Amino acid sequence: MIGYVTAGTNDFDKARDYYEALMAELGASQLYARGDFILWSSSMSVPGVALVKPQNGEAATVGNGTMVSLRADNETAVDRIHAKALELGSADEGATGPRGGGFYGGYFRDLDGNKFCVFTVQS
Predict the structure, then answer these.
(1) What would be the CATH architecture of the domain defined by 4-54+66-121?
(2) Residue 21 belongs to what H/E stretch?
(3) DSSP E strand boundaries for 1-123
(4) Nearest Cα to 15, choosing from 77, 94, 90, 116?
(5) Using an 8 Å Cβ cutoff, are 116 and 86 in contact?
(6) If 48 and its partner were Cys, which of 4, 31, 38, 108 is the partner (CB 3.0–4.6 Å)?
(7) What's the whole-model pTM score?
(8) Coil, helix or strand for 1?
(9) pLDDT band at 122 (very low <50, low <70, confident <90, very high)
(10) Which helix (DSSP H) or strand (DSSP E) does residue 76 occupy?
(11) In the chain, where are the structural domains located?
(12) Structure confidence at residue 70 (pLDDT)
């Protein structure tokens, strides 16, 4: 259903380096790049994450209540990816751990304040 989500940035070069390192932790690589737009995914047949400088020339802003969730393979991967995000300069929005109903996740904000969750479903 979802093809990709975008995160806006006001510092494209800095954000590109951030996402390049973070997406590598998820096993994703750049599948498409054009000007101020880059798409990371593991394949064109699965959803991806894109970075974009707003095309209208206005400043990128954070959507209140908007969050992108990134699915990881297991709890160890969730912990690793959340730690990598913090190492790259993310703000911690909630440490990793069980949240009920078999959901295990952690929350962070990227360099521009976009909110992300990295999670797995416990079996």
Answers:
(1) Roll (3.10)
(2) helix 12-25
(3) 4-8, 29-34, 37-41, 48-52, 67-71, 91-100, 103-109, 115-121
(4) 90
(5) no
(6) 4
(7) 0.87
(8) coil
(9) confident
(10) helix 75-87
(11) 4-54+66-121
(12) 95
